[in-house]
Amino acid sequence: MSYTISEIAEKLGLTASTLRFYDKEGLLPNIDRTASGIRVFSDIDLEWLSMVECLKATGMPIKDIKTFLDWCMEGDTTLRERCDMFHERKRVVETQINELQKTLDTINYKCWYYDAAVAAGTADVHKCMLQEEIPEEIRKLKERSISK
């Protein structure tokens, strides 16, 4: 199947200018064009662009994504480099997830804190609250958020 730049942009939640930028940066080496120069995208291009967006979401710079593309174009001689790159990306994403979990723990604790304060009409409610009155999950959240 073939797609216009607008259709691909909509499918991926990108702008047409982002797709043009990717093309300018050499990230879309196999894009077909009509006789008048209009880009025509295929299902394979859609898959590749999904991979580009995945790598970008990990914080990978465009130049490194371009290197990955070059390795793909080189074929099997670069399998080790590509494998190593994905293992590194995995480590980066796992670190991001851990940091986001700590952030979420803090936010969840603060949601409980302010829900209790709003219900009591004062933030002082926590000053006289016994440790046993604080739900166990909330105590754990507080401990995890403080141990950052």
UniProtKB/TrEMBL annotation:
Cleaved signal peptide residues: none
Entry-linked SUPFAM superfamilies: Putative DNA-binding domain (SSF46955)
SMART domains assigned to the protein according to its UniProt record, in alphabetical order: HTH_MERR
InterPro entries with a match to the protein in the record: DNA-bd_dom_put_sf, MerR-type_HTH_dom, MerR_fam
A matching Pfam family: MerR_1
Keywords of the record: DNA-binding
Domain HTH merR-type: 1-71
Molecular-function GO terms, alphabetical: DNA binding; DNA-binding transcription factor activity
PANTHER family, A to Z: REDOX-CYCLING DRUG-SENSING TRANSCRIPTIONAL ACTIVATOR SOXR (PTHR30204), TRANSCRIPTIONAL REGULATOR, MERR FAMILY (PTHR30204:SF83)
Protein name, as recorded: DNA-binding transcriptional regulator, MerR family
UniProt lineage: Bacteria, Bacillati, Bacillota, Clostridia, Eubacteriales
